[in-house]
Write a sequence for this structure.
């Protein structure tokens, strides 16, 4: 057996003291960081020093922690999904509240129900001037409610767009932070310094980043982190790839992002390349979905609702005529004289006097008309009236004799959608607009009056407009009460429903989606919490565990000190003996 | 399983907060009676709730309109009865005159003028600003005997409706379905026209002694008018019954719709109170668990 000197004993003991001190320092750091977010408990790795095949003491070879990387990846995934679902749920719930609440009901429903009540009263009031004004007001209120709701959808899209820009900034800051950390980790690895704390910071940043956008990542052999979007676009390579995005500003219904380029809303770019499609998941993915899919689908639903009802109202109104018959009828749909015209049925064009008695009447066979210019010529040729196409492309029919008015009647079918002639030209229609965002009461209602009665006859000498007749208003009421064929939207199938029925169906659809988004959000939040808890429970600091370690280290320190003290005694005895 | 101190505390705290949130939701339900403030919290019945709300409004509106209509119809019925009474009185006097009991033309003429005015004013009855016999939307008096065009004496055998100022269509109430419910009778009907013509003929009689043929014509006209007005009364009685049925069925529907709406949007107060108590107990237990966790430490035992 090899010889051992007292100096050797002292040396070995000294190593023990040093190792214990290091371990004490790690433990105390663990305790003080017990509440630090992302901090994982570190341990001291020690090894026996061997000299000449013999153990001569102990030394610290590293301070570190081994985290479960598979679990960590799951946590990152769950972070993305949870943030994504929570954001979508917040947007769905927000827009639902703009459509209505349990307590105060829906403004769209209220406006429509009021419109029907007011129409019913006007029918009963013989279409008096006051009742017609009330109907016009109710129509305007309903249109304004649709415009307001549509504006709320676009405001929500604007918020999402602004948040996209903010999120892109946040992602850039995190990528640049991770890039800096990569450098520090590389330096520490090169100099043999511990990297565990740097890796904790890296993990916190990565988790924040996965909350913003779904990512994949790996660590290179040299310890550097590489990050890719879930769609495969590199975000962090040897340097951070900065994303750039210019928010659109105030969104309108026709503002859209087009993945194939050319849309009015720009994409998110890296070095001039649009990578929007590769950025899914997380808050950013949810914001893009909200802006480009969820909210536009609701706008589409509002548009289908608005135009379905407006067309039904216009179809009914254009069969009727204001009382007294207006001297001039102006269309609201622009046409060009050269545009081909296809129609069938017999149109009766009559001039009536103040009492509603027909003074002249002409029948026009629409199947003989080939262009809009021909139509205007035929109208112009009718007895008692003149017709022109004005600068706006609107057909204008004027009674020739002062004190007489123009009345159109007859069953006609025009164009592909089979509308009546007056409906197709926008004559005696009540609503104008192309969607929920610009729906309004037609201007001609103000200038010509509200169509109240359907002409009873167009035979000269007969009464066309019977006093107190409200058949036109009745048709408007019935148009709202009867099923209307509504177009399909991206979330709702085409259906025949009453106006109120479709309003309720639209709100129901949004409510169901909001409720499903809420459920999805709470489920993914639960999954995230479970995974995150298993990770932090496995790797976080347990103060009681560290306290126990502290006691053991204290005992170990005392024991090693005792060895030094004993060696000192041995040395003293030896010296005394020599003296 | 190993736990980390901070995570364990955070988890317990999060659980307690969730229980607290449930507790607060239950309290809000108890306070507001609503299942949820948002439509997404109605278990997928948001559309039904909106439809029912609209149905209730439409039904309430219809009932109020139908009640107005019924008041008008009932008034019309009573007024027609009064007019028939005047006709019967007139017929007795005319019969007496024909039989020679009354020989003074002036007396009959004065009486006829009075009856004419009474009948005209009865036909001009209004209810709440609505002319009862004026047709759809009429607010002004429908009978104007002074209308320059009205001249029944020129052709006593022919109907003359020029006294009529009202609407050409009946009053209408928009009910479910394609057609509305028409109601009321108009003063341009057969009964009204014949009554007014007969009484005008007598009031305008100038011959003395009384013209027996003319009196007989007037008597026959009044006879026809009474029959026509009786038919009108029958129609009014039918309308009144229809409106009553409508009001009753709509009121019944409202009861059903209200309870259906309540079952969708409202919570049972007793159940909500029980839920609050339940959540309160769980929250107390949760806080107590949090307190035990934070109060226990190894260092309290090792020294």
């Amino acid at each position: 057996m090899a010889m051992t000197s007292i100096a050797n004993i002292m040396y070995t003991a000294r190593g023990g003291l040093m190792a214990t001190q290091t371990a004490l320092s790690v433990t105390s750091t663990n305790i003080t960081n017990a509440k630090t977010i992302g901090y994982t408990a570190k341990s001291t790795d020690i090894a026996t020093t061997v000299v000449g095949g013999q153990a001569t003491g102990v030394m610290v070879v590293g301070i570190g922690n081994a985290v479960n990387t598979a679990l960590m990846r799951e946590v990152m995934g769950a972070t993305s999904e949870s943030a994504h679902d929570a954001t979508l749920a917040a947007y769905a719930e927000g827009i639902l509240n703009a459509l209505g609440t349990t307590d105060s009901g829906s403004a769209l429903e209220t406006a429509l129900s009021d419109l029907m009540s007011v129409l019913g009263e006007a029918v009963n009031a013989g279409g008096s001037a006051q009742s017609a004004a009330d109907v016009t007001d109710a129509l305007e209120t309903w249109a304004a409610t649709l415009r307001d709701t549509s504006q709320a959808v676009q405001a929500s899209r604007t918020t999402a767009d602004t948040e996209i820009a903010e999120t892109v900034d946040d992602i850039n800051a995190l990528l640049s932070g991770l890039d800096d950390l990569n450098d520090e980790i590389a330096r520490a690895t090169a100099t043999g310094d511990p990297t565990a704390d740097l890796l904790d910071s890296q993990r916190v940043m990565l988790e924040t980043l996965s909350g913003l956008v779904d990512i994949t990542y790996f660590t290179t052999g040299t310890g550097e982190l590489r990050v890719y979007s879930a769609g495969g676009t590199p975000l962090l390579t040897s340097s951070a790839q900065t994303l750039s995005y210019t928010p659109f500003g105030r969104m309108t219904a026709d503002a859209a992002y087009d993945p194939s380029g050319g849309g009015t809303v720009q994409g998110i770019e890296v070095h001039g390349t649009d990578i929007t499609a590769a950025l899914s998941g997380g808050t950013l993915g949810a914001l893009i979905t909200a802006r480009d899919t969820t909210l536009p689908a609701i706008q589409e639903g509002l548009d289908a609702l608005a135009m379905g009802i407006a067309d039904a109202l216009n179809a009914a109104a254009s069969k009727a005529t204001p009382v007294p018959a207006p001297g001039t009828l102006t269309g609201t749909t622009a046409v060009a004289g050269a545009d081909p015209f296809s129609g069938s049925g017999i149109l009766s064009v009559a001039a009536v006097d103040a009492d509603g008695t027909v003074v002249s009447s002409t029948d026009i066979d629409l199947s003989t008309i080939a262009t809009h210019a021909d139509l205007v010529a035929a109208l112009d040729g009718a007895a008692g009236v003149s017709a022109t196409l004005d600068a706006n492309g609107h057909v204008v029919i004027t009674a020739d004799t002062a004190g007489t008015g123009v009345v159109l009647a007859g069953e006609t079918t025009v164009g592909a959608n089979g509308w009546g002639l007056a409906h197709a030209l926008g004559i005696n229609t009540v609503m104008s607009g192309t969607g929920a965002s610009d729906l309004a009461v037609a201007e001609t209602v103000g200038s010509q009056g509200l169509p109240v009665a359907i002409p009873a006859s167009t035979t000269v000498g007969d009464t066309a407009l019977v006093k107190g007749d409200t058949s036109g208003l009745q048709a408007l009421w019935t148009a709202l009460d009867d099923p209307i064929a509504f177009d399909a939207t991206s979330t709702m199938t085409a259906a025949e429903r009453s106006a109120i029925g479709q309003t309720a169906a639209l709100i129901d659809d949004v409510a169901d989606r909001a409720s499903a988004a809420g459920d999805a959000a709470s489920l993914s939040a639960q999954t995230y919490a479970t995974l995150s808890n298993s990770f932090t429970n496995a790797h976080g600091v347990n103060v009681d565990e560290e306290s126990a370690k502290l006691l053991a280290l204290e005992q170990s320190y005392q024991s090693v000190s005792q060895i030094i003290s004993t060696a000192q005694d041995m040395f003293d005895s030896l010296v005394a003996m020599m003296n | 399983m190993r736990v980390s101190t901070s995570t364990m505390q955070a988890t317990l705290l999060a659980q307690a907060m969730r229980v607290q949130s449930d507790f607060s939701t239950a309290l809000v339900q108890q306070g507001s009676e609503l299942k949820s403030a948002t439509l997404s919290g109605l278990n997928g019945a948001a559309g039904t709730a909106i439809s029912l709300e609209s149905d209730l409004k439409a039904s309430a509106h219809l009932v109020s309109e139908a009640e107005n209509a019924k008041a008008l119809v009932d008034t019309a019925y009573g007024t027609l009865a009064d007019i028939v009474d005047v006709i019967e009185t007139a017929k007795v006097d005319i019969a007496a005159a024909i039989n020679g009991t009354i020989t003074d033309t002036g007396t009959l003429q004065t009486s006829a003028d009075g009856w004419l005015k009474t009948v005209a004013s009865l036909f001009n009855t209004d209810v709440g600003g609505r002319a009862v016999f004026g047709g759809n939307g009429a607010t002004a008096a429908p009978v104007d005997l002074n209308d320059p065009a009205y001249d029944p004496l020129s052709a006593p055998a022919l109907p003359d409706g020029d006294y009529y100022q009202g609407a050409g269509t009946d009053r209408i109430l928009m009910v479910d379905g394609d057609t509305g419910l028409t109601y009321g009778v108009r003063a341009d009907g057969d009964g009204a026209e014949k009554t007014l013509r007969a009484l005008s003929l007598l009031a305008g009689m100038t011959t003395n002694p009384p013209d027996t043929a003319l009196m007989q014509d007037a008597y026959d006209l009044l006879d026809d008018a009474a029959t026509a007005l009786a038919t009108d009364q029958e129609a009014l009685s039918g309308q009144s019954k229809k409106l009553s049925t409508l009001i009753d069925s709509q009121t019944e529907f409202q009861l059903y719709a209200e309870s259906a709406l309540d079952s969708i949007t409202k919570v049972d107060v007793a159940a909500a109170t029980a839920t609050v108590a339940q959540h309160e107990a769980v929250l107390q237990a949760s806080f107590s668990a949090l307190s035990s966790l934070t109060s226990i430490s190894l260092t309290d035992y090792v020294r």
Chain B touches chain A through 58 residues (CB under 8 Å). Residues 5-33+267-302 of chain B form one domain. The radius of gyration of chain B is 38 Å.
